[in-house]
């Protein structure tokens, strides 16, 4: 076997397919772009959906990439199998309606066996095919694979529901029986079985059918090839490693972990090795994911990160590492991946900071989790049978991040088993919840062929022009058909040239009209989008007949466009100002540029303070007042990067990119429209700042006239306040408000003391009227108080004074009546109960109530009955 490093192997794969006419696509962000159906990019093809379902036609139908991928469903496999990680790189070659089986099969064989490339021995390789795919089997044979090495397997059909699907071929490498975990005569001991001997390295999918919504399959108009080979698995074969982990991709991480551990050494103890592998895997996954803008949180992607970091922490503890350590592995990962992913080292301080703070946080819950575990163990021991409940194990797993195995181990030390079925049942429930929350995970649309074959060119001239005379109408689509003319309804149009901007990069589509040569409006443009081959496709309301081949005048609504452009320029200023004020880690996470306002989402793990926002606003306005010119160039990606332009990390760019510069202040990759000079913006004002989700903040802002109106409206409110405060000087409003508040406070104090006085006065009046009934003294009076509290106060005074045996007070507040009854200790001894009394009299005021023997309250809605109620209380004593 050749001695090759992982970097060399990755490069050789890309070079091989470059020689076969493929364009090398960069490894796209792990965070899917414009694809809400996927949590993470989980394969090479996941980044190419738009090509495979026909929304976009690629410049070159042959593509190749080494794509970073995350598969959360493999988390539990990590460290247990030789071949799984959560983060891995998938090498792939893709044909979008171009070559098919006849080329894909021999090329795969050539790459793996040719002495110039991987130079694997042919008899080490096994191929699986779908039984009905006779053609694939035939081609493998013709390519030189021995029939005994070609295995038919029903599972070899790639189908993810609606969208492209088809048979596939998997390639296995026979590592020899010494690598196996099952016996030679085990039924699983074959390529494709559950074993460690035959390693699946490559999967080649021949996507040739459309899986239709009704469940039927029809041949695809354009057949595709989609392949995936795990780089780590290939490297493990080339480097003769026992598992993916004993390769140059992981060993440096494992060695760095050994140094931090309690004198643990890799390769000595099976359990320790699992921990080393989990840590090595998880450190890579979280480093890359955070580098791509994800952040730990309680949901979605963020939760995956949290889980990975927690698992790694627990495994660290097993190796005797009791403090945050994962973050220290970030530069180690960065160094290993430097040749293909230089951005990791560049961002390593930021990534480490995020991981460290998450580790700190978990170290707190870890202690709590262990406490809970001890408590549960004590409880379980007292029960028969002595088993730790599944619910407890699940809580430990779910809330405190304790993997089940760890709980089992801890419980085992105490002589306890854990209810695994109960745990699994809880787990299943949670998975069902998660599944219900996630929309379908397939997400490729059914190919619609209509515009795929439309290759006519359409030039966008809207960066410098707002109208175009004599544009030729090249394509008309009406009622899902390409037609030569249209007279009414809605239609989609492509012209040879157009000033209309198609929605992209957050900037909304232009609006406007289309006129004929006589100056009559023949169509109103309601939307503009990119057709699969990149042309600007105008959706219009047809007002008068339109004919293919005729000339028309295209007129963009100037006022609309101007407002949008100002806001787009402001968005770039904001992007840069955020980096200046909050730090270089800020990444754009979404943007909307409309005529009336702009919205900008960005990654930032903390709050944004009012002072920071003020500073951002200040910087942007300074740039506006400095009247900076805006210019743009179209150049190649490398030169653009050399210029220092900010690229959207989630975006894929073609060969040529446009770079927009605002003076020396901002440079960004961008296809949008802008002001010519920042002075046109006039004014910039932030109107709102909120958090939208895990680690994402959102700013909304306005410019120009909208900013003026925003401020003006506020000034009017202030004017109104001034008028109400009887001042003509706006600047005195705050002190006037403070003064008013002070006055109000003083007045309230006076009211309170006057009320107290008057209550005392009333009390002495009220308590004079003592009646004697059957040897019991009673005071039953209507009083004037403002709330229930005062009524209770009066009852307390009565108690202090021991004014009678029984007290009944009633008061009317608004439309309601409140009653209070109290009985003295002597009265209680004589068998009287305030609760009984109030129950007897409350119906008179249309209410009910109750209470203790010494004190009871009631409320009612009939003030007219109050006197009757008071009278009823004396009758109550008469018995
Ligand atoms: P396996 O059965 O081994 O999990 P798979 O059938 O899930 O593999 P595919 O979906 O066909 O794999 O992905 C294509 C290739 O990607 C595989 O042949 C393998 O080389 C690689 N691969 C898939 N999952 C992982 C993983 N978790 N870690 C490393 N490599 C992987
Ligand atoms: Mg798998």
Automatic annotation (TrEMBL):
InterPro entries membership: aa-tRNA-synth_II/BPL/LPL, Ala-tRNA-lgiase_IIc, Ala-tRNA-ligase_IIc_anticod-bd, Ala-tRNA-synth_IIc_core, Ala-tRNA-synth_IIc_N, Ala-tRNA_ligase, Ala_tRNA_ligase_euk/bac, DHHA1_dom
Subcellular location: Cytoplasm
Main localisation: cytoplasm
One function term, GO molecular function aspect: transferase activity
Keywords: Aminoacyl-tRNA synthetase, ATP-binding, Cytoplasm, Ligase, Nucleotide-binding, Protein biosynthesis, RNA-binding, tRNA-binding
Family: Belongs to the class-II aminoacyl-tRNA synthetase family.
Name of the protein this chain belongs to: Alanine--tRNA ligase
Gene: alaS
């Amino acid at each position: 076997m050749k001695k090759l490093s992982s970097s060399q192997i990755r490069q050789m794969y890309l070079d091989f397919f470059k020689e076969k006419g493929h364009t090398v696509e960069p490894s796209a962000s792990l965070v899917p772009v414009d694809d809400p159906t996927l949590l993470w990019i989980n394969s090479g093809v996941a980044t190419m959906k738009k090509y495979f379902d026909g929304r976009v036609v690629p410049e070159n139908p042959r593509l190749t990439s080494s794509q970073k991928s995350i598969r959360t469903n493999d988390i539990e496999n990590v460290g247990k199998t030789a071949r799984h990680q959560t983060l891995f790189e998938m090498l792939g070659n893709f044909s979008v309606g171009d070559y098919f089986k006849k080329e894909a099969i021999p090329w795969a064989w050539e790459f793996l066996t040719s002495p110039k490339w991987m130079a694997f021995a042919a008899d080490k390789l096994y191929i699986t095919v779908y039984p009905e795919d006779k053609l694939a089997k035939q081609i493998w044979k013709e390519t030189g694979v021995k029939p005994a090495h070609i295995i038919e397997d029903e599972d070899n059909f790639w189908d993810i529901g609606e969208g492209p699907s088809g048979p596939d071929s998997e390639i296995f490498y026979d590592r020899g029986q010494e690598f196996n975990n099952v016996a030679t005569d085990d039924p699983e001991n074959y390529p494709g079985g559950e074993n460690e001997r035959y390693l699946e390295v490559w999967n080649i999918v021949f996507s040739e059918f459309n899986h239709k919504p009704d469940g039927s399959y029809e041949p695809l108009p354009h057949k595709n090839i989609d392949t995936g080979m795990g780089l780590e698995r290939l490297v493990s074969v080339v480097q003769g490693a026992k598992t993916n982990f004993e390769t140059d991709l992981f060993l440096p991480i494992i060695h760095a972990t050994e140094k931090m551990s309690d004198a643990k050494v890799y390769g000595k103890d099976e359990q320790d090795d699992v921990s080393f592998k989990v840590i090595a895997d998880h450190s890579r996954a979280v480093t890359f994911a955070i580098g791509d803008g994800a952040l730990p949180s309680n949901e979605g992607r963020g939760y995956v990160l949290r889980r990975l970091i927690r698992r790694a922490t627990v495994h660290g503890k097993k190796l005797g590492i009791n403090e945050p350590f994962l973050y220290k592995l970030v530069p180690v990962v960065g160094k290993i991946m430097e040749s293909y992913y230089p951005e990791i080292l560049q961002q390593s301080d930021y990534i480490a900071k995020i991981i460290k703070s998450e580790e700190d946080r978990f170290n707190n819950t870890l202690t709590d989790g262990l406490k809970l575990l001890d408590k549960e163990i004590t409880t379980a021991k007292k029960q028969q049978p002595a088993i730790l409940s599944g619910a407890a194990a699940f809580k430990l797993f779910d809330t405190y991040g304790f993997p089940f195995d760890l709980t089992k181990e801890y419980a085992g030390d105490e002589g306890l088993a854990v209810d695994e079925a109960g745990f699994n049942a809880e787990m299943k429930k949670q998975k069902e919840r998660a599944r219900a929350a996630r929309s379908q995970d397939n997400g490729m649309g059914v190919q619609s062929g209509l515009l795929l074959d439309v290759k006519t060119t359409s030039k966008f001239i809207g960066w410098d022009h707002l109208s175009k005379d004599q544009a030729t109408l090249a394509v008309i689509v009406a009622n899902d058909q390409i037609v030569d003319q249209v007279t009414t309804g809605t239609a989609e149009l492509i012209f040879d040239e157009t000033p209309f901007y198609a929605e992209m990069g957050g900037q909304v589509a232009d609006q406007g009209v289309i006129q004929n040569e006589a100056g009559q409006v023949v169509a109103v443009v309601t939307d503009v989008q990119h057709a699969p081959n990149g042309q600007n496709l105008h959706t219009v309301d047809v007002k008068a007949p339109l004919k293919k081949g005729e000339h028309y005048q295209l007129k963009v609504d100037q006022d609309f466009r101007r407002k949008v452009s100002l806001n787009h320029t402001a968005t770039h200023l904001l992007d840069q100002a955020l980096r200046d004020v909050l730090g270089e880690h800020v990444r754009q996470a979404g943007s909307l540029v409309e005529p009336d306002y702009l919205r900008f989402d960005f990654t930032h793990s903390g709050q944004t303070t009012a002072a920071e926002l003020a500073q951002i606003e200040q910087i942007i306005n300074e740039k506006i007042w400095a009247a900076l010119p805006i210019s743009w160039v179209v150049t190649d990606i490398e030169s653009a990067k050399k210029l220092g332009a900010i690229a959207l990390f989630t975006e894929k760019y073609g060969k040529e990119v446009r770079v927009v510069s605002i003076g020396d202040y901002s440079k960004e990759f961008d296809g949008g429209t802008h002001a010519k000079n920042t002075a046109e913006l006039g004014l910039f004002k932030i109107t709102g700042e909120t958090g939208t989700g895990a680690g994402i903040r959102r700013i909304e802002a306005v410019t120009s006239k909208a900013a003026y109106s925003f401020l003006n409206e506020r000034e009017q409110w202030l004017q109104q306040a001034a008028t109400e405060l009887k001042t003509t000087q706006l600047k005195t409003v705050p002190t006037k408000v403070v003064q008013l508040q002070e006055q109000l406070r003083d007045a309230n104090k006076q009211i309170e003391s006057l009320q107290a006085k008057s209550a005392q006065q009333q009390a002495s009046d009220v308590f004079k009227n003592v009646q004697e009934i059957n040897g019991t003294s009673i005071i039953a009076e209507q009083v004037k108080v403002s709330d229930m509290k005062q009524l209770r106060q009066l009852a307390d005074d009565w108690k202090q004074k021991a004014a009678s045996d029984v007290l009944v007070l009633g008061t009317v507040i608004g439309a309601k009546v409140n009653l209070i009854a109290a009985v003295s200790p002597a009265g209680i001894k004589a068998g009287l109960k305030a609760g009984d009394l109030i129950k007897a009299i409350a119906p008179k005021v249309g209410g009910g109530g109750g209470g203790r023997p010494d004190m009871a309250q009631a409320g009612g809605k009939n003030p007219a009955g109050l006197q009757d109620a008071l009278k009823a209380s004396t009758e109550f004593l008469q018995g």
